[in-house]
Design goal:
Elements (H helix, E strand, L loop, with lengths): L2 E6 L3 H17 L2 E7 L4 H4 L7 H18 L10 E6 L5 H9 L4 E5 L14 H8 L4 E4 L10 E5 L7 H14 L2 E8 L8 H15 L6 E4 L3 H11 L4 E6 L13 H8 L4 E5 L1
Parallel strand pairs: 1-2, 1-4, 2-3, 4-5, 6-7, 6-9, 7-8, 9-10
Antiparallel strand pairs: 5-10
Helix pairs in contact: 8-9
């Protein structure tokens, strides 16, 4: 891993993400791109804006000073930091920065009144997940020592998820974690017999040229299955594929993504397919 991006807004959640990102940067000897987007709209940056240009410059200087002060942390010592400030809060710019710096990972803190609510629904994190071409790691709480030993990756085991599971394998190697691929079997239209489920998984692994042991876990809904299976093996992180801008895939349709992200007490990492 060569480059990691962490967007910050000076909140407790973004500092939690910054600590994890710094830990990963040290471990992989990667540069850490710390991104802050100022709360300025394009209107006030123009000559016809309703705030004088002198005031705009003043606001920018205040934001830059606060940003620099925020980065004055002991845990950032010996980390190769590249500070980036954007004047507007336009979330596709995170993807632009990731492309410019050839980033391998984006780390973000969860937001909401309790740090868990509305992580993906109408939130900053959701916007980044939808537009990001690189994996997004969502951090829910402070981690003094961030480590992952047991990493669950849940998907429908269709060919479109092959790039995602290969990236999950790379992430597992980075963390020196054991990967637990799982297919969640649910009643209703998506139900598969054991034979059919193993047939789908086998075909998937053959096409992907992967030698993995995949668990089939039965539950009433996909989100409950992901969470319950993760709890049953005391997982440290959950991985799920997404469709990015085209909307969220099976695991992020309706309330599934909201439930997995909001109710998981462990980090969640998304992979665009």
């Amino acid at each position: 891993m060569k480059s990691i991006i962490v967007p910050i807004d000076f909140s407790e959640q973004s500092e939690n993400a910054l600590k994890v990102a710094a830990s990963l940067a040290k471990k992989s000897n990667a540069e850490l791109i710390v991104l802050h987007m100022l709360e300025l709209s394009p209107a006030i940056m123009s000559e016809s804006g309703y705030i004088a240009q002198e005031q705009v410059v003043h606001l920018i200087k205040i934001g830059e000073k606060r940003f620099n002060d925020f980065l004055d942390k002991p845990y950032l010592k010996d980390v190769n930091i590249v500070p980036v400030i954007k004047h507007y809060k336009v979330f596709h710019e995170v993807n632009d920065v990731a492309e410019k710096h050839n980033a391998d990972l984006i780390v973000m803190g969860s937001h909401g009144t309790d740090g868990l609510k509305e992580i993906f629904i109408g939130s900053n994190t959701e916007r980044v997940v939808r537009s990001s071409d690189v994996p997004v790691l969502v951090i829910k709480k402070e981690h003094e020592e961030f480590s992952v030993e047991r990493f669950v990756f849940a998907c429908a085991f269709k060919e479109e998820s092959i790039p995602a599971i290969k990236k999950a394998i790379e992430i597992a190697k980075l963390f020196d974690a054991e990967l637990f691929p799982v297919y969640i079997n649910t009643p209703g239209d998506e139900f598969l017999s054991t034979e059919d489920a193993y047939s789908r998984i086998s075909n998937f692994l053959d096409v992907a040229k992967l030698g993995l042991q995949v668990e089939i876990y039965n539950d009433y809904t996909v989100e409950k299955g992901v969470l319950n299976y993760s709890d049953s093996i005391t997982a440290d992180m959950i991985g799920i594929p997404t469709h990015g801008r085209r909307g969220l895939t099976h695991f992020f349709m309706g309330s599934i993504g909201e439930d997995v992200a909001n109710h998981a007490n462990i980090p969640v990492i998304t992979f665009k397919i």
